[in-house]
Amino acid sequence: MSNSDRVDKQREADELKEPVREAGNLARKLGLEPYPVNYWIVDYDEMNELIAYGGFQRRYPHWRWGMTYDRQRKQGQFGMGKAFEIVNNDNPSHAFLQLSNSLADQKAVITHVEAHADFFANNEWFGLFLGEGDDPDAAAMLERHADAIASYMNDPEIDREEVEAFIDAVLTLEDTIDQHRAFAEAGEGRKRAPPEDLRKRLDSMNISEEVRRQVFDEEWLDDLAEAEERAAKLTEPRKDVMAYLREHGMHYDGEEGRAVEMETWQKDLLDMLRTEAYYFAAQKMTKVMNEGWAAYWESLMMGDERFAGTDEFVTYADHQSRVLGSPGLNPYKLGKELWEYVENTTNRREVADKLLRVRGISWRNFRDVVDFDEVQELLRPDREIDVVTPETLDELGELADAGDPRVDADALAAARDGEIDVGAYPWKLLSYAGLAERHFSLVKPQNRGFLSRIRRSELEQLSRYMFDDERYDTVEEAVADVDYTAGWDRMREVRASHNDVTFLDEFLTQEFVTDNHYFTYEYTQTSGDYRVTSTEYEDVKKKLLLQFTNFGKPTVAVYDGNFDNRGELLLGHQYNGIMLDMPQAKAVLKRVYQLWGRPVNLMTIVKEYDDHDVEVARRRNREPTPVEVGKRIRFDGDRFETFELDSELESRIQATDVDYDTKPDDWLA
Q1: What is the rounded CA–CA span in Å between residue 602 and residue 645?
Q2: What is the pTM of this model?
Q3: pLDDT 10s digits, 612-628
Q4: Ramachandran angles phi, psi of 111, nearest 5°
Q5: Backbone angles phi, psi at 536, to 5 degrees
Q6: What is the per-residue burial (b if ≥16 Cβ within 10 Å, else e) of 462-495?
Q7: From residue 550, how far is each of 127, 130, 189, 296, 314 by CA, in Å?
Q8: Which of 41, 114, 540, 583, CA to CA, is 20 to 30 A from 254?
Q9: Which whole-number Å values give the CA distances from 383 to 386, 408, 481, in the listed order?
């Protein structure tokens, strides 16, 4: 690095000291609890290197990093997207800002990063990698791995190409882990509960012998016991394929003509790469939530709370609109819209709950007697809270003297003493409650009408166990009692416990799909193109869940390590209506063979179409109905063989009620 580059970076760092400090203060005022963040200024090439390395400065030697770097660099060169920052999950977190960013971009990045650091610190899925009370120390861990793997590559006793080939083989399986379990326990197989003897339970129940003989036939009880015993003998599939290969894998020795134990360095590499897979798993599992969370709070801080200066706002708005408007499945856009929906629906329930407690208002007449324009006006923040300027300090002082919890009395005193720039940072004078009222979602112009769209069934549910339904005499009294923090509080609860799959499953509703214009599309065999198939939320949810279940990759588990009593590995693709890409599946089997050292098998299900049925369907403009057939693919190190799958094994991998196909019935008529 030249002296001039070093001077430029130091100058930029000095200019950003105040935005960094105040963005952290604002984030905490808004109820976020981020890890402390260290900010680093890097140039264009350094940013591309960091992105290639997954946000860290040191990684093990491997060609994949160079490939990722080249792709990232070309994206920037050809205007396909610019990286403004990258932040890693560590305590403290480390965020890297690009030197060429404008001040508006740097502020946006800093507010975005503070929200990411809050998500890292408080989402329980990130905690699965850690021990009880531990903090992540990822940078140090990855650096140790980099040094260890580099030492193996430089060891004259070990063939460097063999090390690289082994890493390639392991990386094909980096998503075949049990990411829903704590890292310390994930390598162990899940224990199946022993079957319960139904006869013992019947003995403990007060049932007459006559009823027992008529309802619970002895032959039926015997058949049930045998079936449960057979099921109990079936081992649960081992989802952590990497751990199973670490325990039982071998490698084929060409000179000896047989499988032999893995070398120490091979086991060590498998351990390290598996550990890294679990570290990065939480980030993959929460991509939509995490990016949406950061985009939401960035927007609130930069726009609503005017952290972007008046001369910076247009630049910020332009850049954020490009991020949110990026084509394809955009985690920033989808995530931000879902978080806003969580906030709006929570606030709507809070307001409706208070209105239903007004004398004369019930779930039956709610829409007829409630004046929603009046409620909208009553929900607006008080002027003293909404407009905080140096000229309104006396008005805030009156509220503070009356003990108003919306005002930060200590900050107000500091402002009066000239210690706070109220014009630049008016939020400092408000508490969490005050900021929640100031930014209450239902009074924002884009959400006007959201309260009035509450469903009758939701109103009925709210009223079902409401005993004090005449608490208030007027609507004014009810609205005055609204908890403005309800939406943000609920968002933090969700942030703590959900991942992308559960987040989408719980909050993606028909109302959300309709308001945000989501739909599904399918490939049609008859016309050979794609068509819009549905705007129903169940179908949209299916498609989105497919993208995020198991990181959007096929779920493959170990079903047997001694298949047919021949020491062969039996893997099973847990079929969900989507077929495997067979060329890729066979390529992965070749890699697995390198880690098993003996023949490997993969069970899956394929959809087969009869040529005659396809032609008939095409003429009638309908979709042909496929036949699902179980297959077992075997690779012995030299060639592939395909066998029909045993019906019992097929039943173990066959989906029963999960199918991501959303083709309308009339296509298949």
Answers
A1: 10
A2: 0.90
A3: 777 777 777 777 778 88
A4: -65, -35
A5: -75, 140
A6: bbeeeeeeeebeebeebbeebbbbbbbebbbebb
A7: 18, 20, 18, 26, 39
A8: 583
A9: 5, 16, 18
Structure tokens at 21: 């400090």
Are 573 and 588 a contacting pair, CB within 8 Å? Answer: no
- 571-590: pLDDT as tens digits: 999 998 889 999 999 999 99
CB 23: neighbour CB atoms within 10 A? 28
* Residue 179 CB contacts under 8 Å (≥ 6 apart), including other chains: 128, 186, 278, 281, 282, 285, 550
Nearest in space to 116 (alpha carbons), one of 279, 335, 439, 436: 335
Phi, psi of 605 (to 5 degrees): -125, 135
CA distances from 226 to 166, 195, 197, 649 (A): 44, 10, 10, 18
Q: In sequence order, what are the residues at sequence separation of 6 or more whose Cβ sits closer than 8 angstroms to the Cβ of residue 433? A: 405, 406, 484, 485
Tokens representing 70?
């080249």
Residue 411 has, within 13 A of its CA and on its CB side, a CA count of: 21
Cβ-based neighbours of 237, under 8 Å, separated by 6 or more: 557, 558, 559, 572, 574, 652
**pLDDT digit string (tens) for 211-225?**
666 666 666 666 666
Count the alpha carbons within 13 Å of 513 in the hemisphere toward its beta carbon.
19
Judge contact between 366 and 479, C-beta under 8 A.
Answer: no
Rg (alpha carbons) of the chain, rounded to whole number: 30
Distance of CA 529 to the CA centre of its chain: 31
Lowest mean per-residue pLDDT among 129-133, 175-179, 374-378, 546-550: 129-133
